[in-house]
Amino acid sequence: MSAATAAPVTTAASALLTDPQRPADQRERFYRLLPELLADDPRAVALLADIGAGYVDLPPSVADRVLNLGIREQLLVSAAGGLALTGLRPIVHTFAPFLVERPYEQLKLDLGHQDAGAVLVSAGASYDMAGAGETHFGSRDVGLLDTLDGWTVHVPGHADEAETLIRAALPVDDRVYVRLSGASNARPLGTGPEMTVLRRGTRGTVVAVGPLADRVLTAVADLDVTVLYAATVRPFDAHTLVATLTEPDVVLVEPYLAGTSVPQVSDALAGIRHRVLGLGVGRAELRRYGTPAEHDRAHGLDVPGIRRSVAAFLS
Predict the structure, then answer these.
(1) Which residues of the chain are modeled with pLDDT < 50?
(2) Residues 14 and 155 occupy one common structural domain
(3) Whether the Cβ atoms of residue 191 and residue 164 lie closer than 8 Å to each other
(4) Is 125 left (phi over 0), alpha (psi -120 to 50) or beta?
(5) Same domain, 235 and 300
(6) Which residues form the signal peptide (predicted)?
(7) How much is the pTM?
(8) Do 237 and 134 share a structural domain?
(9) What does the alpha-carbon distance between residue 3 and residue 18 come to, in Å, rounded to a whole number?
(10) What is the pLDDT at residue 24?
(11) CA distance linking residue 283 with residue 285, whole number of Å
(12) What's the domain count of the chain?
């Protein structure tokens, strides 16, 4: 296919997506779901930047509504803005740093300033592609979107949640970001917009975001804390946080830049003396690529790291 002419994608699905012995992760579920979304909604059009082009099996009836623009991420978002202004509903997909960081100006102007809507679906999370290095690390995405107005941000923790959230985003016309990850909880826990109460305690609250919920529950198993689960982080569910609060000590465990949602917690608890600890991906660049598990350990996002941080904070 020619990126210069934005040719429709017509490739067959890879063996990876058709292996019945291997459960689909969030990204794979999206590729399987995409043809159905296009068939069900005549407004839907998918825009790719090479990523995913070899994994989508498209029937002829929808193939002309999937465009591969090549590795031109600014054009990817600009084209989405233009298509949205014609009444179409763009689904825009590539890795997180290429979808949010590289075309940030286009997100600000071609979608935000024009008040145009789109569904942005990223892959790779913070360091799923650890072997590819810093170019493919996406920990800053939610923080960058926080500088823009009017974005709904979903961080599903399971493929079922991802499908539900993507389906729900299509019929409307707003700006939605769905952050897909290779990590997963064992089962779906909720899709919001309200946070799910996973357990109740008296010594503080831990907010577990997306695919980190299972780790958080294991880490705090013997601690007397409330655990809330968030698959939708923007808008932030201040109501559930306040309604379930015991001690005004809150720990956020997020799979992107540490402290990203600390301002939202502080706003929710304005007027209440409180403490908040934001756990997540550290700001220091790790130049040894390693594996996702090694990055989790280095950032304190594995079970022992989360437990150490929560126990020390609440002590």
Answers:
(1) 1-23
(2) yes
(3) yes
(4) left
(5) yes
(6) none
(7) 0.93
(8) no
(9) 27
(10) 59
(11) 6
(12) 2
| Domain contains 186 | no
Instruction: Report the residue count for the chain.
Output: 315
Backbone angles phi, psi at 101, to 5 degrees: -75, -55
* pLDDT at site 10: 41
The predicted pLDDT at position 52 comes to 87
Rounded to an integer, what distance in angstroms lies between the CA atom of residue 138 and that of residue 120?
A: 14
Please report where in the chains the tokens 């763009």 appear, as a residue: 90
- E-state strands within the chain: 44-48, 66-68, 89-95, 118-123, 151-154, 175-179, 196-199, 205-209, 226-230, 232-234, 249-257, 275-281
d(CA 24, CA 20): 9
Instruction: List pLDDT tens digits, range 225-262.
Output: 999 999 999 999 999 999 999 999 999 999 999 999 99
Query: What span, in angstroms and rounded, lies between the C-alpha atoms of 273 and 255?
Result: 26
Residue 16 sits in which domain range? Answer: 3-179
Give the residue among 146, 166, 143 at the shortest CA–CA distance from 154.
166
Strand order in the sheet with 275-281: 196-199, 226-230, 205-209, 249-257, 275-281
Which CA distances in Å does 186 have to 64, 159, 189, 235, 250? 36, 10, 9, 25, 25
CATH assignment of the domain containing 308:
3.40.50.920
pLDDT of residue 57: 83
Asked, for residue 225, whether it belongs to a domain, the answer is yes
**DSSP for residue 169:** H
Give the closest residue to 47 by CA, choosing from 3, 100, 85.
Answer: 3
CB-CB neighbours of 146 under 10 Å: 16
Q: Give exposure, 56-74, as e/b (b: 16+ Cβ within 10 Å).
A: bbbeeebbebbbbbbebbb
Q: Which of 120, 150, 179 is the last residue of a domain?
A: 179
